[in-house]
Amino acid sequence: MTRPATRLALLLLALLTGACAGPATAPPEPADLLLRHGVVRTMDPRLPVAEALAARDGVIVYVGDDRGAEAFRGPRTRVLELDGRTACPGFTDSHLHLSGLARTLAQVDLSGTTSEAQVVARTVAAAAGRPPGAWIVGRGWDQNDWADSAFPVHGPLSEALPGHPVALRRVDGHALLVNAAALAAAGIDAATPDPPGGRLLRDGHGAPTGVLVDNAMELVDRLLPELEPAALAEAVRRAIVELHRHGITAVHDAGVPWRDVQVYAELARRGQFGLRAHVMLDGTLEDSWRSDRGLPTSDLTGQGLIAVRAMKFYADGALGSRGAALLADYSDDPGNRGLLLTDEDRLAAACERALREGWQVCTHAIGDRGNRLVLDAYARALAAVPVAERAPFAPDPRFRVEHAQVLAPADLPRFAALGVIASVQCQHQTSDMAWAAARLGPERVRLAYAWRALLDAGARLTGGSDCPVERPDPLAALHAAVTRTDEQGEPFGGWHPEQAMTRGEALASVTAWPAYAAFDEHRLGSLEPGKRADIVVLSEDPLTAPEDRLARLRVEFTIFDGGVVFEN
Q: Does domain 107-221 correspond to CATH entry 3.10.310.70?
């Protein structure tokens, strides 16, 4: 809508409102915050665009034109002059690992490494000064980015750091590179069998190479030192600062142990948790299902910050480590169809329990076989537990598939038919596009990262980053969703551009759609009176900026609960 047309619409709305208002009323109580002279993308279909916004006590009290906003200006009102910039609902990352990001900040950062030698060098540098025997933990390597894209082996790492056990997680979190000291500490040798849902990569003689895939990682993970609660709390605070820098005011935290939730809750009680978190407990841990904690709940601490009403499960592994479960062999690894981490019967039983207790179920599924297994399990559970037998807390379960990366054509319409939400991460497409076709072949890859096909089939989507797998940057996700290119505009015209979202859909995927996916559409996801004043101000309008500038949009302000928490 053009600016003159916007003003005309607002004027007509004001006239209509005035005609129905009756006698003049007292001026409104002054607002704490006033945004004016800009473009307000409300995500409210009744008033999609406005010029100004006012908030009081963390709640939006006015959305409309600049003239109307002046009534809310008082002596203590903070006024932000937008000067033509664009305000949107605060961004939500609907698949992120908050405590994972926090822990990553305290580990060796291996993102962007271009060779195994560089991985070893960074790890050696991080180990300097650490006492002998101390674990060295890192994350972020991706062999697909190296000249030699074969999986690494432990030899160079073992030679460089013989006195430290080392565990380096792949970027997707589904493979672990360890050295000889870590293998010895875990008791792993040639006689160690592959655990169910996991794989030890081996050399020609059957000896472990040092790479553990999916459930095999547990053999080492159980030995890793855990951050003390105080150290984790400080790391979470640092992570929240990083999220605010990207305009993020809410997260859906995927697969969290209860001990981490307790750290969040303590931060919230101290006024140091500046996020709205929809927490998915790790459903594979029996500890998550304890009934003595008052769960599930939409408000853990009574502050409107932390909801604990979802469970996270895992159907398969990841495409980059060839652990995603496929219906046919990997095109670049004949005989391998990936790994199933949970069987259908077990998942269906967990879903039935969740329906009766009031939990939302969110299941990781990457490959077409993994996605089919999840949809089959959901269908069984939904049929087995009619609405009358479901917990009153959540008669509408809003089950989710986390990632939904590779889909068989027959499964596309099942999302809408079952009411299942597809939780997608658009940055994965731009990260994976260089090698995805090699894994899947030319036909299957057409329905990889297939957002348009899902939307056209009637599915509800929600968008996230999978941070720390990708950086927590909703603007990068928006660019990828619209252009299907990386930030340099490659490949020209987009990678399978027929699967792109519109700009409006891309913006909804990080604002309005996540609110629905977390049962929060009554207070988040749009800018309208009565909703929380969680807002991001951008340098340009993402719905009208030239496509070549989408990758260069900037977050200027992040506002949480009516207060500015980041200013560029």
A: yes
